[in-house]
Amino acid sequence: MKGSEVVRMVPDKNGQANEGHSCVKGRFAWGYATHKDRILKPMIRGKITDPWKEVSWDEALDYAAAEFRRIQKKYGRDSIGGIVSSRCTNEEGYLVQKLVRTAFGNNNVDTCARVCHSPTGYGLKQTLGESAGTQTFKSVEHSDVIMVIGANPTDAHPVFASRMKKRLLNGAKLIVIDPRHIDLVRSPHVRADFHLPLKPGTNVAMLSSIAHVIVTEGLLATDFIAQRCEDKAFQQWRDFVALPENSPEAMQEITGVPAELVRGAARLYATGGNAAIYYGLGVTEHAQGSTAVMGIANLAMATGNIGREGVGVNPLRGQNNVQGSCDIGSFPHELPGYRHVSDSTTRHLFEQAWGVEIQPEPGLRIPNMFDAALDGSFMGMYCQGEDIVQSDPNTQHVTAALSAMECIVVQDIFMNETAMYAHVFLPGSSFLEKDGTFTNAERRISRVRKVMPPKAVYADWEVTVLLAQRMGYTMDYAHPSEIMDEIARLTPTFHGVSYEKLDQLGSIQWPCNDEAPLGTPTMHIDHFVRGKGKFIITKYVATDEKVTRKFPLILTTGRILSQYNVGAQTRRTENVQWHQQDILEIHPHDAEERGIRDGGWVGIHSRSGETVLRAKVSERMQPGVVYTTFHFPESGANVITTENSDWATNCPEYKVTAVQVMPVLESSDWQKKYTRFSKVQDDLLKNAGEGTGNKTPDIKIKAVAKSIA
Amino acid sequence: MLEQLNEKDFGTPRRIAEQEVTLEIDGMQVTVAAGTSIMRAAAESGVNVPKLCATDSLEPFGSCRLCLVEIEGRKGYPASCTTQVERGMKVRTQTPKLQALRKGVMELYISDHPLDCLTCAANGNCELQDMAGVTGLREVRYGYEGENHIHSQKDESNPYFTYDPSKCIVCNRCVRACEETQGTYALTISGRGFESRVSPGQDQPFMDSECVSCGACVQACPTATLQEKTVIELGQAEHSVVTTCAY
Ligand code: SF4
Ligand code: FES
After folding, report:
1. Do A347 and A446 belong together in one domain?
2. Which domain, by its residues, includes A259?
3. pTM of the model
4. What ipTM describes this predicted complex?
5. In what order do the strands lie in the sheet with B90-92?
6. How far is the CA of B67 from the centre of ligand 2 (A)?
């Protein structure tokens, strides 16, 4: 630092999560924080076709509060809700759900984790008893076999990938279960011992057939199961997976993977020593996402690979604080610490602390909010640091829902895609401008420390406090540490957490309480959090999203190294030099059949919509499967994805969409509409206030121009 | 200033072993885990042996010969970064002979290094500069008349850092960081002897190579050869704050 200016970022050798390493984003791509596109003044407008008007903080907050109250009066208490960001701090997320449960008086709060790892929370809670990964990252140093399912760590989790590669170079064996030939399958000095290139949407079939081999070839960890797991559930599960229909030979037809490969991988996982499973959104973002997570937990229990270093079930999380945002009660059915709102003891605890009555019924999930908006019963939303328009599936449905609402309050550092549908814009603060904590996939809580004053006067948590106050509910905090103290007081798994202790220890892995005063690096050591581990039958059910003559290919979506999520941050850095646009990867056979050449424009249709991208002909794909990313709004990757979702948690099925791909000459109707709409929105922004810091987001215009060129 | 900003570098990675070894360094009794290097054992007890090619995030390489020590009963001057501690060893890190040897090594390095310290981006945060100070280098007898690298071309293709081969001391830290820390194997030392320099891929610019721009090499580089563009533009930092990455 030089005063309040960042000179460089250097990963900390003492950082317990990264041990002195970072990727291109963390080390270099922080320039977005001071980018000229930052919006620094609050703005309001009556309709989304009106120009934005810059106003004072007071006016903006008064307006938002009055609108929310007006809407509740007209449409009922449940007609408004809030969205917690997985990029903001734990303290900020906690305040948003508190605002909803106190000032709004309902449970209509949800988080972007809905669209990524909600099945992890559900599946691991059912089987093991806690909605989180079981290990530290360091644990991988003790693994003998590493199984990677539906994750592409070298692109999406590069710092952990480096540690994993280090262990692989020192002799650990590797199994990759992924439709694509990801880099880990073969890179310098690393080669997967098994790559099972299954068809998208068949994870559960694959996991059952691996379990079948373990059970029928006598590879079960019988002592572990007898001591640690529920016997009846185990027997039912064992009998189920042993059925011939679950054999790799029978499943071959469905998964497309030769049975012998599956048998080899299963034997290696069960007998190769310490075996750890790492999985990502390729497991969760499916119609059977929760089932697959439970299938993974079953495998770990069946082979005794849980409860010590080097093993375990490890979700590789999406955004920086997706674990934390789930922990602090941002789901409509759960209070902080994953306790159901119907549980009256927990509810009373919070009612006493907060001085309000809490609704015992779960509130609306994000997709239900959209449906309710279209029905006319959900009319107002407070959305902090999350771009639902770009990240949620079936964009047209989302934008129709937002257009139907009467007051959308967006709090963000940039005029994001959702803000184009907003009526109130409250400037947000970047992680450099506030104190707080983030929690990563290892359940590790780390301090975020302010290095510069908030550019728009307030840190995000302060804005929520002010909004609550305007709505007649007092939140009294002098510093985020006091918010953490409240979380700790009310949440058993956080009882021992404080800023003081975080400063002393560097970071803490929850549960941290009287039983584990220094935190818990490895979970489920002597017994499972739920007591006995529970095997759950995982029956494969094919997704409704089937390939047909009209839509013969499967589209699966993902990420790349240089961009982060919806790209609002990384698109505003030099990282665009590596990735200027989203492209469609397609196998040479599929390309040739359709006359598609490398670099040419292709139209991608699904039953939801159509968009146009450039093609990249690539052997990384298997025939029949195409792939793209969603980092640029004008690409409209989510115009094509459907409203199909996980049966248990509504996590969208981003990984499977039946599509057709054809060469085209111009952008799709949606893209043309999008370009027009965002041009209009840019103009409405340009005219906001006189002589202020607001500038037009020109990067977006440039990128838009590219897509129609 | 450096002390506050940079964490202490113990020279070689920490070893974890049940067995402990006690030895004598500069007359002090020191106890460390078996397998620890003499360099690290010394650093842990507060004695900093001069070094250039060693850093505690990477396995020792033993190429710069600046960390030489004397061990009682042993011939020659072993490198303390690559020599492990043994029970009862008596090590000396500072003697007139060692001083002279280190000066000689430094003189060779500096004779092929631009002397633009005052305007160099690493000024104030350069291990080469530190070592010139530590070894007491006062004159360089070889001029620039002979062959040198002073006019090598810079590679500015990466948006975040530059590579200036004229300042490279071929310590191999960047290559090892790319292999050990990142696991990408994008960098190699190409050429032999005097010709040798770091290169991404087959003598490609960084942007065209396999480099993923993680920056581990930039952090490992003891000189201004690999340097953040923000530091070139803004100068060295004056304070630091520990926080958590928001990606
Ligand atoms: S570029 Fe830096 S780290 Fe790499 S060999 Fe040269 S001086 Fe050493
Ligand atoms: S530091 Fe030991 S040889 Fe370079």
Report:
1. yes
2. 118-315
3. 0.85
4. 0.83
5. B28-33, B20-25, B90-92, B70-71
6. 5
